[in-house]
# Entry
Amino acid sequence: MFRRCKVDGVWFAEAYAHEQNVPYTTIKREGPVAGIIVEYANEVGAELIVMGSSNLRGVAGFVLGDVSEAVLRLSPCTVWAVKPTQKEMDLVVSKVRSYAKPKPVVVTPDLIPDKRLWHGAMGMFFLYMTSYGMFTIAGTLMKGLLGIRVGGLNLAIVSGMGIIIGAIIIALAYNWYAGSRDNQGKEVKNGV
# Structure
């Protein structure tokens, strides 16, 4: 016997119980199904276990066995196995098909969520690297140029301090820009 409708049984049971206003609790554990059912029934002090029985036949029944039969053998309390009629099975299959199971949404993180902010940051970084590169090249190729005195200091020290101050200004400008972009995003979300 094959399943006519491949569906997550737990999802269907939860959806159906919710539709019928039946309170339920979902317990997820790993292990042999019959053993887990009996273990949980013992934990909560159940007096009755009600379950469906598919009554598998052939090789599937031989290899897998019937869970309700195993629960009946292992359980210290009463087990009520309900075998649905063909009409009931058809009803369940139509019900399963009528529910629109939400497909899991796979969210892939955008490495650059705000392209405008990214371009601003890259522009500022390029500006810093260009000034630092020019300073390094000038220091290597024109050693005499950086030795010139400006305000009592040589040009190398003044240029180095200018690059550091420029980096601080770039960082502050970037933080201000990122904050203003973040505030714009919040205003758009809030409908302002």
User: Anything to note?
Assistant: The beta strands are 48-52, 78-82, 149-150, 153-154. The CA atoms of residues 55 and 160 lie 83 Å apart. Helices lie at 9-19, 33-44, 58-64, 67-74, 86-98, 115-141, 143-146, 155-189.
